[in-house]
Design brief:
502 residues; alpha+beta; 19 helices; 11 strands; flat; disordered N terminus
């Protein structure tokens, strides 16, 4: 395999002093560049490059840094390269000289996203490894700087990210973006109404919409009035990138990896969940990305083990009612970990042979079956006095009749489909006693901190909506967002530590 250098060679330039003049020492990107040796990225990606085939590889560190900028500033590949030619901060972070204008072609960044960070045999493997490695690096820095302790508590929760295509297809997304581009053009020249190519929306075919998009782009790009206006040019580039990505993944009718998840009994989303473990200092120690319907509590063990692998000796896990499943209580007890999670009113108790096919959604207060269908109502049965009470959840029988998982779950001809759970057993009774202790209450009082972290990821790092299609795309985006969020937090905590020490 190709032996890659650990650092970019940096030639001296008489203009290099411009960086010290123009880029403040407290600038986040400058502080990150000075703090981190990015050579660890090579170890993850070096096997993606061959020394005997193709042209010489562009520096892997620089490509990775491009990816961080792209995800943070929400730029198309083409606009990112164009901005780098004139933006001194971008050039500095990417290790270019101030006067350099001969940058990479945007197509190389596209290839990097699609091929270097994916694995055709296991499309989740490379991007997931990258996410774990980036988080591990930030935890390593935080421990080294004394910002967090090795023995620590972790707070667990999930945040949802809407799929790029939501419930619409790539064809509908192309129609939406094309409409936005036309509207921007009409503001400059209303006579363009009569010059636009004939729409193909009525055919319902993705291929026809791609053909229309190409004609629209060719028409607009030929007119210098539009390409010289940044706001229009960005729409052109984003539409072109969406079209190219759609052609590359043309088998999608929608994001096939995304699933419907439920925020409450009445509200849902189509996309993904990022399950996060975080210290009370708000440093993320582990993450797992799943499709939207997955249950939060099922990720507790993975997040604990990933945090431990990153150097954290987990003393306690803090989470909402989703983490109070019987299996989690037993796991924490066996591993001498305190669990500060309030019992949901009704939780999975492991009393059913089909327990793994039904998961409790604590936000909606209902069970969700393997197919992602939520129960439509619930009712109590049995005797409370004899401790034999169960909660019975009823599902939409019409959905069950046509479900691909109905074998062994739905009996042909049945008029009802229910799933029942026992309300309480000895494990939960013991945990109820623990919930009354001061230790539990003190631990649980820190749970609110992760809600602020989830909000930060969405509002400051654009993690409310996926910027690519599929599990690989959202994992790469998540890796960038969590990495940057941790670095920002580390920088802030370092500054606070310095101020405290005078």
């Amino acid at each position: 395999m190709l032996k890659l250098d650990n650092q970019l060679s940096f030639c001296l330039s008489e203009h290099a002093s411009l960086y010290d003049i123009l880029i403040d020492k407290n600038n986040f990107w400058r502080q990150m560049k000075e703090m981190i040796d990015f050579s660890f990225v090579y170890e993850e990606l070096k096997e993606k490059y061959s020394s005997t085939m193709g042209r010489k590889a562009e520096d892997v560190i620089r490509m990775f840094k491009y990816l961080l900028l792209k995800n943070y500033y929400k730029l198309s590949d083409r606009d990112l390269i164009a901005r780098t030619k004139t933006d001194m901060l971008f050039k500095y972070f990417l290790d270019y000289l101030p006067e350099e204008v001969d940058l990479i072609d945007s197509s190389l960044l596209t290839v990097f996203r699609r091929e270097r960070l994916s694995n055709k045999d296991n499309e989740e493997k490379t991007s997931t490894n990258l996410m774990d490695i980036l988080i591990a690096k930030t935890v390593e820095i935080a421990l080294k700087e004394g910002i967090i302790e090795v023995k620590n508590k972790i707070i667990e929760d999930s945040t949802h990210t809407n799929a790029m295509y939501q419930h619409i297809s790539p064809r509908e997304e192309l129609i939406r973006q094309a409409k936005e581009l036309r509207k921007a053009v009409y503001k400059i020249d209303e006579t363009m109404h009569d010059k636009m190519p004939k729409k193909r929306e009525s055919t319902g075919l993705l291929e026809d919409q791609i053909e229309y998009t190409k004609e629209l782009l060719n028409l607009v790009k030929e007119d210098v009035r539009f390409t010289t206006i940044p706001a229009i040019n960005e729409k052109i580039n984003m539409l072109e990138e969406t079209m190219n990505d759609t052609e590359y993944e043309i088998e999608y009718s929608k994001d096939k990896d995304a699933k419907v998840g439920h925020k409450t009994a009445d509200t849902s989303f189509f996309g993904y969940k990022t399950h996060i473990a975080m210290t009370p200092e708000r440093i993320i120690t582990a993450a797992v990305i799943t499709s939207g319907e997955k249950h939060d509590g099922k990720q507790l063990k993975k997040l604990v083990e990933k945090s431990q692998a990153n150097g954290i000796e987990v003393e306690a896990v803090i989470g909402d009612g989703a983490y109070s499943e019987k299996e989690n209580i037993e796991y924490c007890e066996e591993n001498n970990i305190k669990l500060a999670s309030k019992l949901s009113q009704f939780v999975t108790h492991g009393n059913s042979q089909r327990n793994n096919d039904f998961e409790y959604n604590k936000d909606a207060g209902m069970y969700v079956c393997k197919a992602g269908h939520m129960a439509i109502r619930k009712a109590k049965q049995g005797s409370k006095k004899s401790n034999s009470q169960v909660e019975c959840y009823h599902f939409d029988i019409e959905k069950c009749k046509h479900c691909k998982f109905k074998e062994g779950c739905y009996k042909e001809g049945s008029k009802h489909k229910t799933y029942s759970v026992k309300v309480k057993d000895d494990v939960h009774i013991k945990h109820m006693d623990y919930m009354e202790t001061n230790e539990f209450k003190e631990l649980y009082s820190e749970r609110y901190k992760i809600e602020a972290k989830n909000s930060e990821l969405k509002n400051n790092f654009g993690y409310d909506t996926a910027n690519a299609c599929g599990i690989t795309g959202i994992t790469i985006q998540g890796a960038s967002a969590l990495f940057l969020a941790n670095i920002k937090r580390i920088i802030k905590l370092k500054e606070e530590k310095i101020q405290e020490n005078g």
